Amino acid sequence: MDIIFNCPNCDQELAVDQSGAGSQIECPSCGEHITIPSSGKVTTGSLPPVPTPPPVTVSPIAASAAAKVPLHLKVPVRDTPGESLISKPTPPLEIVQKGAGKKLRIHTIRRAACIESGHDKFDEKVSAFLQEVTETNLVGIHTISYEMFDVGVQKIMTDYGVLIVFRG
């Protein structure tokens, strides 16, 4: 038969054979020296069996308060598109004439992409693109430098290019 008791220091439940009553042991949980009491819950075998809960017949979701409220929802059907709830204000005419109605766009030209048959065509490609965009739509031109892995020489190479911001 076993004596079941709790450690007075950490309240850990312990089970010891009845022949050890009155002796001192070290608690396996907290390490304190405790004396095994002579009285306590005396059981046969080891620890008592844990009772199993009864099986649940109704799912918790079906028993919830939300499941008991009937919802009667209808989807609206329209012949024409619905009106927009959020609309942008139209810009004044002066701003539209200056090109504010166009979206800002970005175009990047890398020098490495402009080398054709061993000839560097970077300047010609940048000039051609700037003529296409026109000066009125141009917002800014920014130089960039970047690193890339060159497969031919098996090295990381540093290169340059331009980033062009424009309306269009």
Write a structural description.
This protein has helices at 60-63, 65-68, 93-97, 122-133, and strands at 2-6, 13-17, 24-26, 33-35, 41-43, 104-110, 115-116, 119-120, 138-150, 155-167. It is α+β, with helices and mostly antiparallel strands and 168 residues long. Among the domains are: 2-43, no CATH class; 98-167, no CATH class. The strands form four sheets. The chain has a three-stranded antiparallel β-sheet, with no helix packed on it. It has a three-stranded antiparallel β-sheet with strand order 6-10-9, with helices on one face. A two-stranded antiparallel sheet has the order 3-4.
Distance between the termini: 90 Å
List segments where confidence is low: pLDDT < 50 over at least 5 consecutive residues.
42-46
Q: In sequence order, what are the helices and strands, one letter per element?
A: EEEEEHHHEEEHEE
Strand content: 25-35%
The spatial strand order of the largest sheet comes to 2-1-5
Radius of gyration computed on alpha carbons: 41 Å
Helical amount among residues, as a percent range?
A: 10-25%
Overall 3D geometry? elongated
Q: Which characteristics define this entry?
A:
168 residues; alpha+beta; 10 strands; 15% helix; elongated
Outline the secondary-structure elements:
Elements: E1 2-6, E2 13-17, E3 24-26, E4 33-35, E5 41-43, H1 60-63, H2 65-68, H3 93-97, E6 104-110, E7 115-116, E8 119-120, H4 122-133, E9 138-150, E10 155-167
Antiparallel strand pairs: 1-2, 1-5, 3-4, 6-10, 7-8, 9-10
Give a summary of the structure in a few sentences.
This protein is of the alpha+beta class and 168 residues long. The chain has helices at 60-63, 65-68, 93-97, 122-133, and strands at 2-6, 13-17, 24-26, 33-35, 41-43, 104-110, 115-116, 119-120, 138-150, 155-167.
